[in-house]
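Design job #97: recover the sequence.
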C-alpha cells in the first residue's frame, strides 16, 4: 500500500486568503533583482543537465537524510491539473519510500492556492508546500512564514549550480526553497499543420504578424489565448517588454524604478494591440486549458504559454505530443533579439508552523537529489530538471529543446507575478484584461495612468 495519501480541498478547507503585502516590501523589492531573474552564462541553470558528473553521483544518493524518519508529512500542493498532479504523486511516493515517512497531499486549485497563500501560511498550513523561486520565495521568507533550509542545503548543495541556489536564497542569506524544475514560455504549434499549410517559423515581429494574417486568411485562429485566470496574459506582457525594452528594463519596471506611464510601456501595449485582431476572441472568459484544446485540434495555429501548461495539457488530453513543437518568441528590437524569456523555477518550502519538521526536511533532502529528479522526469514530460549531473534518458523533444533554448538566453525572468510585488501583479491582471477588451490608444494611456497610481500606493 502506498505511503502517499492524496486529498482534494475546497477554498474554505484550505484556509487560504490573499492578505496584504509585507511592511518590508520596499526592502524585499530592492534586494530581489539578482535572484528573481539571473543571467544565464555558460549554459546557465541547465549547464550540467546532460552531463555525467562524478562529483554529483555520490551527492545525488537518496540517503541524504542520514537516517530514516517516520510519522506523517502533510504537503500543500497547487498541482491541480491532471498531468502535474500525477507526476507529483509519483515524486512524493518515492520520497515516502526513501524516508519511511507517510506523505499526505492536500491539493488545492492552482489559482486558489496562489491567490490565498498568505493567510494559508498564517493559519494552519501543511508542513511542506509547493511554491516559486526568487522574489515570491523571498517575500514569504521575509515575513517569517517559512523556515530556513540551510541544513538541508548543506546536504544537497552539491547537486545544484550557483544560479539555482541564488533563486532559493532569501534576503537574509539563508536558503528557503528546494528547487525541482523550470520551463520556458514559448510559442507552440503543431508540426503537421505547419507542414500541410507551408508555414515557416517566424524569427522577426514582421514575419510573426504576417504569419498570423496568413493563418486568419486560411480560416485558422492564429493565436490561441485564454485569460480568465488572469495570469496567462502577464506572460505576453513580459515577453513583449523584454523583446522591446530588454531584461534590465523589465526588472526595473517590476520594482517600480521605471514608471508605468513610461513610453516603453506604451510601446509594449501598442505592439500587443497590433496582434490582438489575430488573437482568439473572448479571452477574458476562457480558461487557458480550453485555449490549448483549440491548438490540439488544429483550430488554432499558435499559442504562447509555458511548456508546463501546454505540453502538460497535451499529455493529460492524450493528444499527439510528438506533433507539438515550439519556437522562441520572435525578435522585435534588434538590440535585444531573442536574448531573454520567462523561465520560471518551481520548488518546495517548509512552513514556519510545520508539525513534523524532521520528516519534512528528510523529504526535501530526497527531492533535492539527482535521482529524485530523474525519477520525477519519467512521469513529467514537459519540465526540465535543475540538478547537476542529472541523467534524463526519458527527455522528449520538447524537454531537450527547452534545455537548449533556456541555455541560449543571456538572462531569464521568473514571470511578472513572481518578479513584482503580489499586489502589483494583481493590479496588472485587471488592467491587462481591460486592455484586451479595449486596446485603443486612449484606453492604453488611461490604463497606464491607473497602473502608475496603484504602483505608487503599493511601493510607497
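Job complete. Output follows.
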Amino acid at each position: 500500500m502506498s505511503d502517499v495519501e492524496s486529498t482534494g480541498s475546497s477554498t474554505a478547507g484550505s484556509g487560504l486568503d490573499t492578505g496584504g503585502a509585507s511592511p518590508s516590501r520596499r526592502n524585499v523589492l530592492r534586494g530581489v533583482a539578482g535572484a528573481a531573474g539571473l543571467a544565464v552564462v555558460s549554459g546557465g541553470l541547465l549547464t550540467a543537465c546532460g552531463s555525467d558528473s562524478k562529483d554529483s553521483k555520490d551527492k545525488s544518493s537518496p540517503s541524504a537524510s542520514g537516517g530514516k524518519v517516520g510519522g506523517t508529512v502533510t504537503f500543500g500542493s497547487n498541482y491541480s491539473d491532471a498531468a502535474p498532479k500525477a507526476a507529483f504523486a509519483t515524486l512524493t511516493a518515492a520520497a515516502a519510500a526513501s524516508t519511511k515517512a507517510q506523505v499526505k497531499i492536500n491539493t488545492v486549485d492552482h489559482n486558489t492556492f496562489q491567490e490565498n497563500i498568505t493567510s494559508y501560511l498564517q493559519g494552519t498550513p501543511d508542513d511542506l508546500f509547493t511554491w516559486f523561486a526568487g522574489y515570491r520565495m523571498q517575500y514569504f521568507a521575509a515575513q517569517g512564514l517559512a523556515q530556513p533550509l540551510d541544513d538541508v542545503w548543506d546536504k544537497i548543495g552539491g547537486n545544484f549550480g550557483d544560479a539555482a541556489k541564488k533563486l532559493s536564497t532569501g534576503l537574509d542569506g539563508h536558503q528557503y526553497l528546494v528547487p525541482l524544475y523550470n520551463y520556458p514560455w514559448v510559442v507552440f504549434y503543431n508540426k503537421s499543420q505547419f507542414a500541410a499549410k507551408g508555414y515557416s517559423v517566424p524569427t522577426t515581429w514582421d514575419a510573426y504578424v504576417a504569419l498570423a494574417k496568413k493563418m486568419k486568411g486560411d480560416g485558422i485562429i492564429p493565436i490561441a489565448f485564454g485569460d480568465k485566470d488572469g495570469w496567462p496574459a502577464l506572460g505576453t506582457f513580459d515577453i513583449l517588454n523584454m523583446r522591446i525594452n530588454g531584461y534590465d528594463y523589465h526588472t526595473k519596471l517590476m520594482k517600480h524604478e521605471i514608471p508605468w506611464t513610461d513610453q516603453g510601456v506604451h510601446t509594449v501595449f501598442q505592439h500587443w494591440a497590433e496582434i490582438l485582431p489575430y488573437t482568439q476572441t473572448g479571452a477574458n472568459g476562457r480558461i487557458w486549458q480550453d485555449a490549448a484544446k483549440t491548438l490540439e485540434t488544429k483550430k488554432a495555429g499558435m499559442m504562447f504559454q509555458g511548456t508546463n501548461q501546454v505540453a502538460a495539457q497535451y499529455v493529460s488530453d492524450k493528444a499527439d505530443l510528438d506533433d507539438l513543437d515550439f519556437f522562441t518568441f520572435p525578435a522585435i528590437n534588434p538590440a535585444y533579439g531573442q536574448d531573454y524569456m520567462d523561465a520560471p523555477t518551481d520548488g518546495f518550502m517548509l512552513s514556519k508552523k510545520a508539525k513534523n519538521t524532521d520528516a519534512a526536511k528528510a523529504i526535501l533532502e530526497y527531492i533535492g537529489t539527482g535521482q529524485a529528479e530523474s525519477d520525477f522526469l519519467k512521469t513529467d514530460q514537459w519540465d526540465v530538471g535543475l540538478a547537476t549531473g542529472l541523467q534524463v534518458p526519458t527527455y522528449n523533444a520538447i524537454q531537450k529543446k527547452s534545455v537548449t533554448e533556456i541555455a541560449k538566453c543571456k538572462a531569464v525572468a521568473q514571470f511578472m507575478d513572481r518578479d513584482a510585488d503580489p499586489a502589483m501583479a494583481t493590479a496588472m491582471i485587471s488592467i491587462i484584461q481591460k486592455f484586451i477588451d479595449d486596446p485603443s490608444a486612449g484606453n492604453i494611456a488611461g490604463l497606464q495612468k491607473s497602473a502608475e497610481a496603484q504602483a505608487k500606493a503599493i511601493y510607497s
